[in-house]
């Protein structure tokens, strides 16, 4: 976590009176450990005393269970004084230690005369393996005349390494958003994302689709390349030729990779009229999901365009884009667009991607688009449900396709009916039926989520909240989505971010996730499949 970012603490509270004069409470923090950061915060500790002065001499800790103590550059203990949040202006270093054994302590002298907040952070070596885990538990507070044990809860939960794949201002880019992640037939990880060069907002803007490759399971990544960029098409500046919302797809039979994106040429104003005479200094802006920002028809001055590019060399190079708009979009629809994330290949070889749009009345919907000839031609299905948008698709063991959808109804619904909309089709989307888990089992703050089928299980990731884009969590279902028991939830990042995520199976042992987290624009983590299903009753 950068020193200029305030840290909020949420989970795993324990509170013990240390004596009649001193009380300590601590909150465990769950963030990905980023090796390029000096401070990855692990705990917030609050001390209170009713005495004039209490002499503090140290804080003990236990690292038992950590994979390798040599991964640790150092542990740091800070004070933020009476402030319950920490930032660059209020933090004061109390002690630093580089542990050589699993048990140790911060040694320092301090005087406690009121409420004070401490923060424990760790710095990891840049070469730390993503599979390595860190365990940290505060064990005792040492005063001048006593050593009092602390007995925190949930200490079996490890801290996991993460890669800050894309950070704010990397390569001179303002913001990176909208992750997509797949594993190629060669075992290469391909990550796609919005390269928002000038600002953080959605289309329209100077936005391209970027690609990053990893050939070692996500440990290291090659420099960013650009897969979709419409440059100055039609004589307009790049800020009026943005491409966004990437989806990735792998043809397991041929190894061909596909990237899809939504291109907006110029600006269609709130009245549905294409704006003329745009220049580099023009400030006109609209979005395909707002008012009449995309309209019926097929032309670039009528509606946003659906693009596809291919790679036949494992993602090293990409073809010129093909425009699928007229092939698939219904003329009366206001919009037809990729749903960001990833597509799938069915057991019969059919290629399927999740898509979304706006119907003849401008109402939003989710659906699928598919190809039976290896990506040469495509067809789009009937909407699965209205008032939904970004979605994810998997094939079920019985041959059905499950579509898991962001549901706009959840903007107002914060009760028991809050949850992702889920529908199933057995005829490639000509007909849909509501799944029993719909609107109730998978809470959301109205945000994109990811769904993956692997090893007879379903895996789902999103911000596990009805209210805010925080608590990025991976959940596992062993009964094809009929239940998602809490014992099979894995919290990765409790902090607030943009909240989008994309899941892939890396190999027989690991799942990969790329998400918009609290520590960077895009974070990659590698999770053992065995850690996603609990054997607890």
From TrEMBL:
<feature type="domain" description="Sialidase N-terminal">
    <location>
        <begin position="23"/>
        <end position="95"/>
    </location>
</feature>
<dbReference type="GO" id="GO:0005737">
    <property type="term" value="C:cytoplasm"/>
</dbReference>
<dbReference type="GO" id="GO:0016020">
    <property type="term" value="C:membrane"/>
</dbReference>
<comment type="similarity">
    <text>Belongs to the glycosyl hydrolase 33 family.</text>
</comment>
<feature type="signal peptide">
    <location>
        <begin position="1"/>
        <end position="20"/>
    </location>
</feature>
<dbReference type="GO" id="GO:0004308">
    <property type="term" value="F:exo-alpha-sialidase activity"/>
</dbReference>
<dbReference type="Pfam" id="PF14873">
    <property type="entry name" value="BNR_assoc_N"/>
</dbReference>
<dbReference type="InterPro" id="IPR026856">
    <property type="entry name" value="Sialidase_fam"/>
</dbReference>
<dbReference type="Pfam" id="PF13088">
    <property type="entry name" value="BNR_2"/>
</dbReference>
<dbReference type="InterPro" id="IPR029456">
    <property type="entry name" value="Sialidase_N"/>
</dbReference>
<dbReference type="GO" id="GO:0009313">
    <property type="term" value="P:oligosaccharide catabolic process"/>
</dbReference>
<feature type="domain" description="Sialidase">
    <location>
        <begin position="187"/>
        <end position="511"/>
    </location>
</feature>
<keyword id="KW-0732">Signal</keyword>
<dbReference type="InterPro" id="IPR011040">
    <property type="entry name" value="Sialidase"/>
</dbReference>
<dbReference type="InterPro" id="IPR036278">
    <property type="entry name" value="Sialidase_sf"/>
</dbReference>
<protein>
    <recommendedName>
        <fullName>exo-alpha-sialidase</fullName>
        <ecNumber>3.2.1.18</ecNumber>
    </recommendedName>
</protein>
<dbReference type="GO" id="GO:0006689">
    <property type="term" value="P:ganglioside catabolic process"/>
</dbReference>
């Amino acid at each position: 976590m950068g020193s200029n970012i305030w840290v909020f603490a949420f989970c795993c509270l324990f509170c013990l009176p240390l004596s009649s004069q001193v009380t300590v409470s601590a909150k465990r923090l769950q963030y990905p450990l980023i090796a390029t950061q000096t401070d990855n915060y692990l705990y917030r500790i609050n001390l209170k005393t009713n005495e004039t002065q209490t002499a503090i001499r140290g804080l003990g800790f236990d690292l038992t269970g950590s994979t390798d103590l040599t991964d640790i550059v150092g542990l740091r203990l800070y004070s933020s004084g009476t402030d319950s949040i920490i930032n660059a202006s209020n933090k004061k270093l109390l002690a630093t230690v580089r542990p050589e054994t699993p048990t140790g302590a911060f040694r320092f002298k301090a005087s406690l005369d009121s409420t004070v907040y401490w923060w424990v952070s760790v710095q990891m070596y840049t070469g730390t393996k993503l599979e390595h885990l860190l365990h940290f538990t505060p064990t005792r507070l040492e005063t001048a005349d006593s050593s009092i044990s602390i007995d925190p809860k949930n200490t079996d939960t490890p801290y996991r390494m993460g890669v800050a794949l894309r950070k704010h201002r990397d390569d001179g880019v303002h913001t990176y958003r909208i992750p997509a992640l797949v594993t190629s037939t060669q075992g290469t990880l391909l990550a796609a994302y919005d390269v928002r060069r000038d600002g953080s907002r959605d289309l329209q803007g100077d936005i391209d689709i970027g690609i990053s490759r990893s050939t070692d399971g996500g440990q290291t990544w090659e420099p960013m390349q650009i897969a979709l960029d419409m440059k100055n098409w039609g004589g307009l500046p790049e800020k009026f030729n943005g491409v966004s919302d990437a989806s990735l797809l792998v043809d397991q039979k041929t190894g061909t990779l596909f990237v899809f994106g939504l291109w907006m040429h110029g600006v269609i104003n709130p009245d549905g009229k294409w704006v003329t005479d745009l220049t580099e200094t023009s400030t006109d802006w609209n979005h395909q999901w707002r008012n009449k920002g995309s309209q019926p028809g097929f032309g670039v001055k009528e509606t946003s365009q659906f693009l596809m590019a291919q790679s036949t060399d494992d993602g090293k190079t990409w073809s010129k884009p093909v425009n699928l708009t007229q092939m698939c979009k219904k003329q009366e629809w206001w919009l037809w667009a990729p749903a960001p994330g990833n597509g799938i290949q069915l057991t019969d070889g059919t290629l399927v991607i999740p898509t979304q749009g706006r119907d003849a009345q401008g109402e939003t919907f989710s659906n699928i688009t598919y190809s039976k000839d290896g990506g040469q031609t495509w067809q789009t299905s009937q909407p699965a449900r209205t008032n939904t948008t970004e979605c994810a698709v998997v094939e079920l063991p019985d041959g059905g396709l499950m579509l898991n959808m962001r549901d706009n109804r959840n903007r107002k619904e914060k009760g028991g009916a809050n949850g992702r909309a889920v529908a199933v089709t057995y005829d490639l989307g000509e007909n849909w039926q509501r799944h029993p888990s719909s609107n109730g089992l998978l809470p959301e703050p109205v945000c994109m989520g990811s769904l993956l089928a692997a090893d007879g299980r379903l895996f789902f990731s999103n911000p596990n909240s009805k209210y805010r884009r925080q608590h990025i969590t991976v959940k596992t279902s062993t009964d094809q989505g009929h239940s998602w028991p809490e014992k099979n939830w894995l919290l990765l990042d409790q902090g607030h971010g943009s909240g989008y995520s994309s899941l892939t199976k890396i190999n027989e042992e690991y799942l990969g996730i790329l998400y918009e987290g609290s520590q960077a624009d895009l974070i990659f983590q590698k999770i053992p499949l065995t850690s996603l299903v609990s054997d607890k009753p």
